[in-house]
TrEMBL record:
One of its GO terms (biological process) is carbohydrate metabolic process. Residues 9-190 form the Putative glycogen debranching enzyme N-terminal domain. InterPro entries: 6-hairpin_glycosidase_sf, 6hp_glycosidase-like_sf, GDE_N_bis, MGH1-like_GH. This is Glycogen debranching enzyme (Alpha-1,6-glucosidase). Residues 396-594 form the Mannosylglycerate hydrolase MGH1-like glycoside hydrolase domain.
């Protein structure tokens, strides 16, 4: 679907239109102009003399602006078009669009230009679930201005649309009657201000350092500065070079200004997830840390600042728990959804501890570790108390809010993602395998921070003992001897949820797998049931719920594969890790360098290209971070004390991979790796 749509974005303000630049009301996909979870334009439809236009070409090279080159009629009718239209638009907290009508004839011509305008002020959750609005919408006509207003008690949003050229304005849009001389043109600049009012009657974005509004030039400069700060990549592998460049640009585009702290955060993904997510933000931070470490502290601090401190069943909040999702829209404001913020994830809390430690290992910034000692301790305490619902020493989940809370609170959070091999669904609570790996890793990292920075060796010893016991218990209880792999989860009775899934790859990344079982895990991950040739599937073929186009039950997720590759490399399976890197980079070539949220799990032998998943987010932060983590894996980058270990293992045929100015506590260093073929060629020369 996204291939048929055109999007521009600046942080969590974004616009999705069709290929003509038009927006038509939709309640099955979020087309329109959005900011902070509210749709400010649901209709934005251009006609010339009452006729829709057709796109000749679209310039969408920049994430924040695009141009549409249009003519009237369908393709068979425009061979001798006497008129064309250019729509140039840019976004930066608000929307600006310039309409230009060009008369290509040798005589003066009169045209009626019409833009239908409207807003349903839908909350993003209302689009997902097609709810009726409970407030009142009005349209106020002014001189060359149309003001669209929505109020529901204290909730107040407005879209203010202005035109630089004189227009006839009505409640449904603007009309221009224009007379254009031979080979001349007419234009007007439209501006759409998205007004988000707080309780005091002022746009609360005005209190942030950027005031919510930026020019395209400022956005361009900021994104280029981010790219310039990143290490410089030189390589022989064109897909790697393209994916790396695209990832840096997408990460720059996904940054938005937090209202709460006035810092720049990464939104999780367009169109559904343009906000802060605990799990997504942490995993993306781990991916980008070796390249752009300055992006990480704002996320850590924001998550710590919003850490749970009470029991709140509606929000799944518990003391010490790290949030899952933060929303600003109407349904969250009126508590029709619990996302203000919502804490329904069991993995964001241990991952928070992991990120804090990994950040210090790379940067040497021990002040942040000391500053957030209370938050890290609270997170570690949550793992062993509220997280251990059954008192078995494992991390379990079950929502406190069965009406609007998430049932599955692991990264595969769709309703049918956790199943037995035969397709049946287990009861609750559930203890998925990767959660135990995250908890194990968090305890070891917490022990390191306690010993080195919190001056608490006794606590460090305690955490290390707990981690050792967890690893021993896990390898006893989760291993399925007759199938030679770890169970996807334990059910409430402690029985194996025995589906074969990609989750076992995260176990390698965490380090909880016994050395004598690691090879068998690797063999499953690269075996034909899980590995499609384009990447590791979320669920193996022959499983009851396997579906190559099922969201978490057979698709390939790039971020998932990047952490699996990292885990394989950790246990010494460098060739296998390289195979995943190669498959992901090959797939990225078919997506113009931008890996989507997910793509279909069809076997590579069936398709000459990876098949799109119909509603995948793109760009998405942890997909944008995937090429970066793959680069870390290929070059074997690992911090050790004050030094960076570089141990390249570049797959056959990839040639030279050179990364310059890798930042960290060591200053800046360079890394160079070559595939065996490239090395042999150098020796021959």
């Amino acid at each position: 679907m996204m291939k048929q749509l055109v999007s521009i974005l600046d942080g969590n303000t974004f616009l999705v239109s069709d290929r003509r630049g038009d927006i038509e009301p939709s309640y099955d996909f979020p087309t329109g102009l959005f900011s902070f979870d509210t749709r400010f334009l649901s209709t934005w439809l251009l006609t010339l003399d009452g006729e829709r236009l057709h796109a000749l070409s679209i310039d969408d090279a920049k994430s924040f602006r695009t141009r549409f080159f249009l003519v009237p009629g369908e393709p068979t009718h425009y061979l001798d078009a006497k008129v064309s239209v250019i729509r140039s638009r840019a976004i930066g907290g608000s929307l600006g669009e310039e309409l230009t009508v060009l008369n290509h004839s040798e005589r003066e011509m009169r045209f009626t230009v019409r833009m239908d305008m409207g807003s349903d002020f839908a909350d993003l959750f209302e689009i997902k679930h097609q709810r009726r609005k409970k407030g009142a919408a009005t349209a106020v006509v002014g001189e060359n201005e149309l003001r669209l207003i929505y109020r529901r008690e204290a909730f107040h949003r407005e879209a203010v649309i202005t035109s630089t050229a004189p227009a006839q304005v009505d409640q449904g849009g603007m009309t221009w009657s224009v007379l254009i001389g031979p080979h001349q043109e007419w234009s007007t600049r439209l501006h759409v201000a998205t007004m988000i009012y707080g309780a005091r009657g002022e746009d609360f974005r005005a209190t942030t350092p950027l005031g919510g509004i930026r020019s395209p030039e400022a956005i361009q400069i900021e994104q280029q500065q981010l790219v310039d700060r990143a290490p410089k990549l030189g390589c022989d592998c064109e897909p790697l070079a393209g994916a790396y460049h695209q990832s840096l640009n997408d990460l720059g585009a996904l940054r938005y200004e937090s209202i709460a702290l006035g810092v720049r955060l990464l939104a999780a993904g367009l169109p559904w997830f343009m906000t802060l997510f605990g799990r997504d933000s942490i995993l993306t931070s781990l991916q980008v840390l070796p390249f752009l470490p300055e992006l990480v502290p704002p996320t850590i601090k924001m998550l710590a600042g919003l850490q749970g401190y009470r029991l709140d069943d509606f929000r799944d909040e518990e003391p010490g728990k790290i949030l899952h999702e933060l929303r600003y829209g109407e349904t969250a404001g009126f508590e029709e959804q619990p996302h203000s913020p919502y804490y329904g994830s069991a993995d964001s809390t241990p991952l928070f501890v992991i990120l804090l430690d990994e950040y210090e290992r790379w940067t040497g910034d021990d002040q942040l570790v000391k500053q957030l000692e209370f938050s890290a301790r609270a997170a570690l305490n949550w793992i062993g108390t509220y997280g251990d619902l059954l008192g078995t020493g494992y991390l379990w989940y079950q929502t406190r809010n069965p009406e609007t809370g998430l049932a599955n609170q692991c990264w595969k959070d769709s309703w049918d993602s956790i199943s037995y091999a035969d397709g049946r669904l287990p009861g609750f609570p559930r203890a998925t395998c990767e959660l135990q790996g995250y908890a194990y890793d968090a305890k070891l990292r917490g022990a390191r921070m306690a010993r080195l920075f919190w001056n608490d060796p006794a606590y460090a010893d305690q955490l290390e003992r707990e981690a050792a016991l967890l690893k021993e218990r896990f390898n006893r209880d989760f291993w399925i001897p007759e199938r030679d792999y770890y169970a996807l989860a334990l059910d409430p009775e402690g029985r194996h949820v025995d589906a074969l899934s990609s989750n076992i790859g995260h176990l390698l990344w965490s380090g909880i797998v016994d050395e004598n079982r690691a090879e068998r895990v690797a063999n499953h991950l690269l075996g034909p049931r899980l590995f499609s040739g384009w990447g590791v599937r979320t669920l193996a073929t022959e499983q009851g719920r396997y579906n190559p186009v099922g969201y978490h039950v057979g698709t390939v997720w790039p971020f998932d594969n990047s952490f699996i590759a990292w885990g394989l490399a950790r246990y010494g399976f460098r060739e296998e890790a390289g195979k995943i890197c190669e498959s992901m980079l090959s797939a990225s070539h078919y997506f113009d360098g931008r890996l989507p949220e997910a793509f279909a799990g069809y076997d590579r032998s069936l398709t000459e290209y990876p098949v799109q998943y119909p509603t995948a987010c793109s760009p998405q932060a942890w997909s944008a971070g995937t090429p970066l983590l793959l680069l870390r894996v290929l070059l074997g980058l690992e911090p050790q004390g004050e030094h960076l270990i570089i141990d390249p293992a570049v797959p056959e045929g990839m040639g030279r991979v050179e990364l310059l100015d890798i930042p960290g506590r060591w200053g800046k260093v360079d890394a160079l790796g070559r595939s065996r073929t490239a090395q042999d060629n150098m020796r021959g020369n």
